[in-house]
């Protein structure tokens, strides 16, 4: 009897442990197949110029939102409008260790300081880890750094600079929209008629954004062949061209062809003068086209609310030419792109996310969305279906088809500090408080000293 009881107890214990084992095994297996908690994603710090009046700001915001949704990561966006303050802020961020993970910035001399300090990663280095990175890009179209001739920034689109026209003002004055043969002499004559009719000929904030007139007025004297050569001094041939070009800006000011408050008004102020039909001409970049379109929408966030009749009041054409430069010779090229910083690259998590972000933002589809009526750097060509574009975009495409050349902006290789005497100092120049020759010579001296 006792033997039977002991056997029963042993069997009971075995059964208990078996049951426990089954339960435990089941729990373990359950734990193994249970999905891991979804990662909440990485916060990527990004700085671009897609802000304020930039025509691609909404395109950028939409692309960022799509990437965030697709990857589960988040962009901490610190973008702001492009101007000299923005450039200074970015350079200072690198100097203080406050740079972002990804930066959309200029490809010219403004980037030299942080490239030279090895604060950003080259395309070749990225491809050592990510061989397919930016494989859709035609590298022949991408600017290399003057520091070491490597590619650091991946562009999304090219640019051009041209003369926007308020056709309503010209119609009131009895003038035709300038064409391919428009000369500087014609321009000065037209500006005189516009002023006599009570309008401002040229919308420009010469005190804060003299960049475009600085570039084209010099281009009008240097021409295509010499424009990218920075002079040794004001006494050489190209140096004299620079002086003569900036003197043309002062002449426009003295003739009263700029707004009366051009030295104190903001760029937004003078742009709205143009949009309201108070000024006839606006010299600006391709990025301004989208801003004009947005201003013609009843709802800035709804492209479907575009007032096509209002938009039809505006067009874009060539900047008046000279004997040295045909009107159809334009300033243009590729001047900005996405950089991945060394700070992000050396953080394994940030590295993957930064590469993912830049890859997405420079994909064929996204680039085509940004480029539209400008040039791009893609290997794959996309056909232009004019029905996809509004009237101003169509005018831009037609203009580009007639362009005889695209020359990069020399100011992109003329370092920031060098430009202070003629950019920041433009108010003193036009008001006669500073001689043009002295201002140009000062800038050239700074440039030569920095080269050393």
User: Taking Cα atoms only, what radius of gyration do you get, to the nearest Å?
Assistant: 29 Å
Tell the overall outline. Answer: globular
- The first-level CATH class of the largest domain is given as Alpha Beta
**How many separate domains?**
2
Order of helices and strands: HEHEHEHHEHHEHHHEHHEEEHHHHEHHH
Give the end-to-end Cα distance, rounded to a whole number of Å.
Answer: 107 Å
| SS-based class | alpha/beta
Largest sheet: 6 strands, mixed
Task: Tell me about this structure.
- The protein is α/β, with parallel strands linked by helices and 452 residues long.
- It has two domains: 43-158 and 334-382, 3-Layer(aba) Sandwich (D-Maltodextrin-Binding Protein, domain 2), CATH 3.40.190; 159-332 and 390-451, Periplasmic binding protein-like II (D-Maltodextrin-Binding Protein, domain 2, 3-Layer(aba) Sandwich).
- Helix content is 47%, strand content 11%.
- The chain is built from 19 helices and ten strands.
- It has helices at 2-33, 57-71, 84-96, 112-116, 123-129, 167-173, 184-196, 211-226, 237-254, 267-275, 287-295, 308-311, 342-345, 348-361, 364-371, 391-402, 416-419, 426-430, 436-451; strands at 43-47, 74-77, 102-106, 159-166, 200-202, 279-285, 314-317, 329-333, 336-340, 405-407.
- The strands form two sheets. Strands 4, 5, 6, 7, 8 and 10 form a six-stranded mixed sheet that branches.
- α2 links the parallel β1 and β2 (74-77).
- α8 packs antiparallel against α9 and α9 packs across α19 (436-451).
- The chain starts with a helix and ends with a helix.
- The model is unreliable at 1-5 and 7-39 (pLDDT under 50).
